[in-house]
Amino acid sequence: MNYGKQSTERKIKSANSKARKYTTKVFLAFLKSLFILCLFGSIVAASVLLGMVKGIIDNAPDVDISTIVPNEYATTVYDSAGNVTETLVTAGSNREEATYEELPKNLVNAFVSYEDSRFWEHNGIDLRSIMRAVRGVLTGDSTAGGGSTITQQLIKNSVFGGGMEKSFGERLERKFQEWFLAIKLDGVMSKEQIITNYLNTINLGNNTLGVKVAAKRYFNKNVSELTLSECAVLAGITQNPSKFNPISGQKNNAEKQKVILQYMHDQGYITKEEEDQALADDVYSRIQNVDTATKETASPYSYFTDKLVEEVITSMKEKLGYTDTQAHNMLYSGGLSIYTTQDPGIQTIVDEEINNPENYTAARYSIEYRLSVTHKDGTTTHYSEENVKRYHKEMGDNGYDGLYNNEEAAEADIQGYKSYQLKEGDTIIGESLHKTLQPQASFVIMDQKTGEVKAINGGRGQKLASLTLNRASNTYRQPGSTFKILTAFSPALDTCGATLGSVYYDSVYTIGNKTFSNWYSSGYQGYSSIRDGIIYSMNIVAVRCLVETVKPQLGVEYARNFGITSLTDTDYNPALALGGITKGVSNLELTGAFATIANGGVYTKPVFFTKILDHDGKVLIDNTPETHRVLKDSTAFLLTDAMAASMDSSRKFSSSGPSSTSPAAKIPGMSAAGKSGTTSANNDIWFVGYTPYYTAGIWAGCDDNQKLTKQNGGASFHKAIWRKIMTRIHEGKPDPGFPMPDSVETAQICRKSGKLAVTGVCTEDPRGNAVYTEYFAKGTVPTDVCNNHVRATVCSVSHQLPTPYCPERTTAVFMVLPNGETGQTDDSKYAMPGYCTIHSANSITIPPGSYPYEDETSPQQYAPGYIPQNPGANKPIYPWEDY
What fold characterizes domain 477-583+597-691? Predict the structure, then answer.
């Protein structure tokens, strides 16, 4: 045996065993150290976390938790002179308190089942919901839902002002404090008190705060009378009052209502039969678009405040990240100070003139009628003014237009309709009749330099409620010819190389199946400039400018840069030049667009307030308006000069041309520029203009688009109202005019070509001197000479082109028409004539040298109709010279 080899192997194994034991000890020591380190780290982290949480909780607001209700600090609104104009307070912001006993069980259960299913069991916070929400955040699952209980939401709205933190850290701190206070609140306040305070606090859309007012707002009944289907409708609003509004967002609300009813069934609050009955209920037919809070208000908000409320809420959402509920709560109970741009003196003048009956030749009335009838068989039918229109049609009254000469006539017609409609056994369960003065008007005036809206009026007649239809800002009407400036002429001058003198041929103009026409009856005018197109509002000039020079895509782009937000993808067409757009425009945006031109081409977004201070006097929002350049200053001046000329009385250079469109709006002693607009059927009439101080726009028309016939007030009264308002506002102000910028120069051109004039030709147009001085952006003065005028030799007797037989000749100036233009225009009257038809060759002797042949040396005899040829050029001789 080899004992030496075995000994060596035993020694190696022993050494390996010792190494493994040593390695194991080292590894175990490392793990022990790592465990101790981790344990120590965890203890330290936990201590730090607990310390942080304790610090956050210790810094929680010191409130009397047993009396927690929403804060109700009044918000004060000031005009530009520092006067208090409105006080926005909880009691006047559409909130009423309901007791728990008034709340239907279905209403409470609808909110609990959807918002907080374990509300009656948890201690103020729901750990399962919190973990689910955290898991959703970590996994990016947006459908996981939130973790806030109803108790937490009440704490957030009442203690934390709706939860308006700007950073994640602030939100996390508030969330810890919210949990702490929710547990504390649950210990001292009953569940019934918590749910009652919550339902009295929430925003339910349309300026409706709390379920008691919402029941009246949407169903015209007491909250205690709500049905199951109605309860589910209200519970579906609160998550997003704008999206799930049962009036404007009916489809979304109906989908949410279905989900809530399913939750109620799944949680045992209702039976399947009750769920099905609620779903079958046509609940939305009963919803009434009324505003109960404003009806109860003795002094409804002005149109300015109506728009201010909208602007403030929008600004809070955009600049502070608030939700609708947070913004509403802050506005109506946050104790804010809102400093507006409203000028009290200007507002008074606007309101007086818009409501002065002497400024209108008609005072007719439209109606909004609602009638609900339960029939003998138990069915219910709802009627409106549309049924009244059908009634008149059935009666053969085809002339009925929905307007009445006085209120008594409207009431008598309704009585007649009811006598016709109601049958024996019918029971009226609801009826309302509202009469509105027609034609209506709206007015906006702003400082073009600052964007500050100084006054606004949203309708003629007494304002009966707050937050109602505002025709100045929230209705969209066709802008007519005012759009020529924004979509055709502005981009043509600013970008496309055109000048005020650039001409387009005014004649029959057809694109596809659409033939365009002018508003006047004096016939087509032939060559007409952009200046003519503005002063005389020439439709075909505007359309040809858009189509041939600008293109609709660029026209839409410019309109949007001017602040017009209502254009759609269907508006890229030639009718854009004439304001024929899908949705229409608001007076506020149209006025803001023209203020851009008045401000040298710089757009400033219209603003209604300058700043908002919170309850402690700190600046919450500093409302500096948005600005951007739209036009060169030279373009703005050129447009201003042409629009100023439209307000002077003049007639187009023509044998029978149209008159300028806006002398009725001219302000005595003050420079002004503006553009009128009238839709083709006289449904809408506009005038938007400006002075060196203010830009103002007026719209007039009937709410239901009836034509402005003579019986309905005519189509020109609005310009006089604009003039009266602006005249009063500018009394005592000096007139600085519209200074010409350094970027503009002048040159003499021919108005029939837009090119440099030819003395002795353009000056002797048959209708007068066609030469005038025009403004140009520097570098755009034309270098070519007029080629639309031509001087020709004519027969002295027939004034036609001479033949060799015409004994005497003279010269005259004629128009050269565009190729292919054969229609009758004012220019075609002066086009080049044919050859003389008076003189013939019978026994006529042509003296030597009388016809322009260099080799003529003897009298020539010509047969009738013969036209001599030029031997040198081998072509007919035409006896005129082209200048």
Answer: Beta-lactamase (3.40.710)
Q: What is the pLDDT of residue 883?
A: 25
Q: Is the Cα torsion angle 588, 590, 596, 602 positive or negative in sign?
A: positive
- The continuous run of DSSP H or E covering 87 comes out as strand 84-88
Predicted pLDDT at 125:
81
Determine the average pLDDT of the residues in 802-809. 91
Cβ-contact 225, 215 below 8 angstroms: yes
**Strand locations in 261-356 (E):** 337-340
Tell me: the pLDDT tens digits for 709-747?
999 999 999 999 999 999 999 999 999 999 999 999 999
- Residue range 284-341, pLDDT digits in tens: 888 855 443 334 444 789 999 999 999 999 999 999 988 887 888 889 878 899 999 9
pLDDT the model gives residue 205: 82
Q: Which residue has the tokens 């209120």?
A: 407
Q: DSSP secondary-structure letter at 830?
A: G
Which is nearest to 146 in space by CA: 166, 170, 169, 129? 129
Query: Cα separation of 98 and 745, whole Å?
Result: 72
Domains 100-280 and 477-583+597-691 share a fold: no
| Residue closest to 687 by CA, chosen among 594, 607, 766 | 594
DSSP character string of 373-403: EE-TTS-EEEEEHHHHHHHHHHTT-TT--S-
* Residue 278: per-residue pLDDT: 93
Architecture, CATH, for domain 100-280: Orthogonal Bundle (1.10)
Q: Which two tokens stand for residue 31?
A: 């793990």
Q: How many angstroms separate the CA atoms of 688 and 666, rounded?
A: 12
Angle at Cα 290 formed by Cα 286 and Cα 295, nearest 5°? 140
Q: What is the DSSP string of 469-506?
A: --TTTS--B--TTHHIIIIIIHHHHHTS---TT-EEEE
Give the domain ranges of the chain.
34-63, 100-280, 363-438, 477-583+597-691, 744-830
Confidence of residue 869 (pLDDT cuts 50, 70, 90): very low
Contact 753, 504 (CB under 8 A): no
Pair 785, 860: CB distance under 8 Å = no
